[in-house]
Amino acid sequence: MDIDNKENELFYHKTVLVNEVLHYLNPQPGATYCDVTFGSGGHTKAILDSQPECNVVAVDWDATSIETYAPELEEKYQERLQLLWGNFANLYRLLQKAKIGKVDGILADFGTSQMHIKERAGFSFYRDSPLDMRMSPAHQQVTADHLVNKASEEKLCEIFWQLGQESHAKKIVAAIIEARQRKPIHTTRELALIIEKTLGRSGKKGSSKIHPATKVFQALRMYVNQELNNITGFLAGAMQVLKPNGLLLCISFHSLEDRLVKQFFKDKADEGVLEIITKRVVVPTAEEIAKNPSSRSAKLRVARLL
Ligand SMILES: C[S@@+](CC[C@H](N)C(=O)[O-])C[C@H]1O[C@@H](n2cnc3c(N)ncnc32)[C@H](O)[C@@H]1O
Fold it and tell me: Going from the N-terminus, what domains does the chain have, and what CATH number goes with each?
């Protein structure tokens, strides 16, 4: 695999399902929408451009995303855009602290942006960097380095299997334990090499072309950032900050994320709290996937607060 080309492809973030988001959100004059995953501002910008009299409150946990992409948009949209730094798991408190009342719609585009993969330590095995993986080092303490070097064999197996669905979890963990007894593992390349040596350069024979370390890196990132717990907290908080008839749009990339959203929508629909708008999950068109192959696993679900 050509690492430079792969890096260039990875480091350019393309916003997914923009037309579909605008179709379901249908921004209205005077309404306020909350984009809880600002990233590089793609969805925020699309919402603000689609309806010149609506407002957006945008949230991101990653201060660098806000520092890099917010100034230009704040200049352009002035008081129509407000940025908040924090974890969407605490959405209710974040909005309360900023004295923002209930909103007409909430959009979440879960996962990492290409910005993390490019700029932040530990996210990519295509580039050597310290094994960190925290989205917001100011808010978090546990790093991937700590887990890889200190977590028990059982814990690492559980993380790789449950969050990465890595079927070779045991074999990989045995190799990590053996390696860390000789010398601590501190960088992405060191970890990727241990996995490559264990599984072979291209992963299991006959399997997909993904790098053999992909699932382990994904699992570590999800654990370090408590991504599934954050989504659970976010969904509960969204119920407190949406106005009646307010819309909740969730884009997932990982089946575990989508499962949480799907089950939450179903439970709340059964309780008569939400109406599910997307009876079937919405996925990118073939045209979007052709233009942006990384959009292929995106799934959008929409519900309305009753
Ligand atoms: C897939 S990107 C969003 C891309 C964005 N929709 C765009 O068009 O540019 C996900 C973003 O969510 C942020 N994020 C991840 N977990 C978060 C959390 N718990 N709270 C707030 N933001 C989070 C990441 O920092 C990242 O910027």
Answer: 3-115+227-305 (3.40.50.150), 141-224 (1.10.150.170)
